[in-house]
Structure formats: C-alpha cells, structure tokens
Amino acid sequence: MKFACIPAYNEEDTISDVINDAKKFVDIVVVCDDGSTDSTLQKAKTAGAEIISHTKNQGYGAAIISLFDYCRKQSADVMITLDGDGQHDPNQIPLLLDTLSQHNVDVVIGSRFLNSETSAPGYRKRGIKIITSAANYGADLKVSDSQSGFRAYSKDAIDSIHPTEEGMSVSTEILLKISNKGLSLAEIPIKISYGGDTSEQNPVPHGISVLANTLKYVSIRHPLPFYAFPGLALIIAGIVSGGIFLDAYLNQQTIFYGSLLASVVLFLLGAILIVTAIILFTMANLIRDRA
C-alpha cells in the first residue's frame, strides 16, 4: 500500500487541499499534527486523513519520526512525505512513484534545484546549497537539494531508516542513514510554490541551526579531516610558539609569558582534537563492521 505522509503544524489554510489532492495517488493519507493550535487537526480529519497527534509542538523531525514508525507498523510498501503548507504540489506525486518503480531505487528526492526555473528566494537558495554541500560531504552523496521534504521511500528504506533528530536537520540525518545502509537514491526536478510560505522561523538562526547539526553529522562521518587535521595544525602552532619562548629565554634571558601560554593552550587543544578524531574514527569503523 502507498502512504502519503504529511507533517503539519498550524496549516489550517492549506491542509484540506493537500490531503484531497494526495488522495488521488495513494491508498492512505496520514497527517501528523505536531501540536497545532489552530484547526489543522479538525480539518485533516474532515478531509479523510489518518491522524497521528502530538500533544505539543515537538518539531518537524519528530513528526517525520512518528510517520516512519506508523508506516512500518502498517507494513507500507511506499511512503511519500510532503509538506502540509501547500509548497509541495501533491499532483507531482506520480513523478516520485514512477521514478521509484521504473528505476528500482529505494529513495527518490524531489529537488527544487534541478529545475533551472526554480522560484526559491535567493537567500533560501544560497543557504540550502551551503547545507547541501556539507551534507553531501558527510554522507558521501551527490544530491542537489538535501533539505527537500518531498520524498518517496520504498519498503526497504522504510524498514531501514530510523530517524532520531526532532528538528529540521532530520533531512540530513536521513541522507546519512541512506548512505550508511547502502540504499539507492535518485533525484527528480519538482516545482515549489513559495507564495504560501508559512514558516514562522527566522531564516538566519534557523539556517545556522540546520547547518550546525549537519556539520555534527559530517564530523562523525569524517572525524579525521574534521578534527585531526585542525588538531595537528594547532599542535604545530603550539610547537612554534614554544620555540619562540625557548629562543627568547635561552638567548635573551627574557620570558615571553604570552608565548608560553599560547604554546600550552594550542598544544592541549590540538591534542584534544586528535584524541577526539581517533575515538570517533574507531567508533565509526566498529559500527560499520557490525553493520
């Protein structure tokens, strides 16, 4: 069975239309109402959707977690995720379904950047590209839109992917799990409507938060370049600073306390980063061996 899964928070103006359009292409529409304070829940029920209800707002990722859990329990064959604010056009669902079946892949992502005519605002486009570059490096993938929530998952992907992030960085976490599990991935161009952009979050701190969480996954996946190389650079800088101190002390009988302090601090920070890299590298290899 095919499920269309919609995370929703205060989407009373659009949720009914999204559900009604999605019902044309799937067997069941499921809405995870993430603690909405408006009539989203009532309108979703009236439109005929199955309901998962959070008593309080927990975040986009928490809704995605609940939807994955629901689809696993229902033994769903296909899971489509799309936003409830009208940005994703449910009439494009067949594009994802056709790609999933015809190309025999596990995950299909609808990308707003494969289409040269994308209407994404400039600041959003630049921010997503930065996050996507970091996500691609962390997950060893090549996608153009890591933050797209318009996706299709096969049964193998539904059973294999267990998200844990409750915020917007769940999109990056899922990409990492796709890579870790060796699942196949494809992208298709989609059109997005930003006329009804209902995001209540300031784009700057929101983007920084997502990027920070993305870098967290990058650091776990690639600990040596992320921690060891900077750590080595700090140790070298500490040694140089220590050399300046010793040169002044031995040849000029002058004590450069600043150089001494800098040498100690830089050396310790570098050592901490290198030890962190070794620990994470060892843990990552153990996890890969078990998998």
Report on this structure.
By secondary structure, the protein is of the alpha/beta class. The protein folds into 2 domains: 2-221, Spore Coat Polysaccharide Biosynthesis Protein SpsA, Chain A, CATH 3.90.550.10; 223-290. Helix content is 54%, strand content 13%. It has 10 helices and 7 strands. Strand 2, helix 2 and strand 3 (50-54) form a beta-alpha-beta unit. The longest helix is centred in the last third of the chain and has 34 residues, at 257-290. It is elongated. 38% of the residues are buried.
CATH topology descriptor of the largest domain: Spore Coat Polysaccharide Biosynthesis Protein SpsA, Chain A
**What is the CATH H-level superfamily of the largest domain?**
Spore Coat Polysaccharide Biosynthesis Protein SpsA, Chain A
Count structural domains. 2
Distance between the termini: 29 Å
Query: Can you count the beta strands?
Result: 7
Q: Are there runs of 5+ residues with pLDDT below 50, and where?
A: none
Output the helix-strand order.
EHEHEHEHEHEHHEHHH
Record the strand order, biggest sheet. Answer: 3-2-1-4-6-5-7
The count of helical stretches stands at 10
Return the average pLDDT rounded to an integer. 88
- Measured by DSSP, the beta-strand proportion falls in 5-15%
Class by SSE composition:
alpha/beta
Taking the sheet with the most strands, its summary is: 7 strands, mixed
Radius of gyration: 24 Å
Tell me the overall shape: elongated
Helical proportion?
Answer: 40-55%
Secondary-structure arrangement, i.e. CATH architecture of the largest domain: Alpha-Beta Complex
What is the CATH class of the largest domain? Alpha Beta
